Amino acid sequence: MKKPALFIDRDGTINQDCPYCKDPEDLHVYTDAVDIISKYASKGFLIIIITNQSGVNRGYFNVKELQEFNSALIRKVAQMGGRIDDIFYCPHTPEEKCECRKPETGLIKQATEKYEIDMENSVMVGDRDDMDGELARRLGINFILLRH
Ligand SMILES: [Mg+2]
Question: What's the CA-to-centroid distance between 8 and ligand 1, angstroms?
Fold first, then answer.
């Protein structure tokens, strides 16, 4: 059976934003983000991070470093009582004009190819209306603005 998803941004929404975050030592996870994650997880939603990580193709960090930071984030969220099911990221710079950099919808397409998602009841959470909010509008789903 299809499940709705809580699509959630990473930097500035779940964890404190730092310029091109890559060091797990800089990881600070917001409790209100974990509260939202836990609430939707308990309602049967998939919890999927959708994140632009142009630092990869800008050469600021590599995919291995990105994955280590993501693993630390997943562990921390779990320690705080939440859960992350998957992470989809865009490694491209804006100049590459890809189809996955938010607010483009390519990462959501990747998620729907991997999981059976009830899009109609899915929700997007993020700290930027021009990126996360715009993505939600393009998908026709509800948006929760979470800023810190
Ligand atoms: Mg953000």
Answer: 9
